[in-house]
Amino acid sequence: MDIIVCVKHVPETAEAEIKINPDGKGVEESGLVFDINEWDDYALEEAVQIKEKLGGTVTAVTVGPEAAGSTLRKCLARGADNAIRLTDPKFEGSDSYAIAKILNKAVKDLHFDLILTGAQAGDDSYAAMGPILAGLLGIPHATMIKKIEFNNDTIRFSRELEGGLEEVGEVRLPTLLTIQTGINEPRYVSIMGIRKAMQKEMKILGLTDIGLGEDEVGESGSWVRIEKMYVPPVEKQAEFLKGSPEEIAAKVAEIIKARGLV
């Protein structure tokens, strides 16, 4: 079972103070900690577990700057056999469609039975790249996968729907699945794994290597362009009421009456 896992190098922003670049089209990266995208982390773990059960190889692929190499090294340390970094200044500004075109050129001639991606990326939440890549490759796909079972040349899967519902389906290999968090428990990176990862070769490809033109990537090759990013203004603030319980209760009653709620 040869598996390709598409991963993304993203900033951890849950507890960080976000500042917008002067051009208004991105965030300031200085001071931010970057790591593998959370959903991709589960996709990688699923790929490695499948390899451990059925044999085969796992190839991790990313589109990103030189710094994205640290995420690929983490993938190698966790059990991936090969790593490909697609890096070129012309890739800057690429949306999900352009990223899918880049990945398509990089993997279409590789042998694969299964492609796994995260359900979405933590930095943009578009959740579009996986299905677009499947369309470009001409293979079936399913999204938000929570469980995978193999049956010869088909996969039986469970996928998460809205409202707590779950759908069960079947798809023929080769196929592409986007993985939802919770499908497994990602393993920790061992010291031995890190040492082995440092010795493995990482393939680096640019625009000319994959055979795309400048007008097919970046903003010119994208469907979606970012015109302006901004931090939403604070329109309302919480009001803290002070005083005795009786005084606070009276103030609450006045506020409710003033707003016409009674």
Give the structure's gist in a few sentences.
The chain is α/β, with parallel strands linked by helices.
If you had to describe this structure to a student in words, what would you say it looks like?
The structure is a single chain. This protein is α/β, with parallel strands linked by helices. It has a single domain (2-221), classed as HUPs (Rossmann fold, 3-Layer(aba) Sandwich), CATH 3.40.50. It is 28% helix and 24% strand. It has 7 helices and 11 strands. The protein has helices at 38-54, 69-77, 96-107, 129-137, 191-199, 207-210, 245-258, and strands spanning 2-7, 9-11, 34-36, 57-63, 82-86, 114-118, 141-151, 154-160, 166-172, 175-179, 202-205. The strands form 2 sheets. It has a 9-stranded mixed β-sheet, with helices on both faces. A two-stranded antiparallel ribbon has the order 2-3. Strand 7 (141-151) and strand 8 form a beta hairpin. Helix 2 (69-77) packs across helix 5 (191-199). The N and C termini lie far apart (65 Å). The model has no long low-confidence stretch (mean pLDDT 93).
Secondary-structure map:
Blueprint: E1 2-7, E2 9-11, E3 34-36, H1 38-54, E4 57-63, H2 69-77, E5 82-86, H3 96-107, E6 114-118, H4 129-137, E7 141-151, E8 154-160, E9 166-172, E10 175-179, H5 191-199, E11 202-205, H6 207-210, H7 245-258
Parallel strand pairs: 1-4, 1-6, 4-5, 5-11, 6-10, 7-10
Antiparallel strand pairs: 2-3, 7-8, 8-9
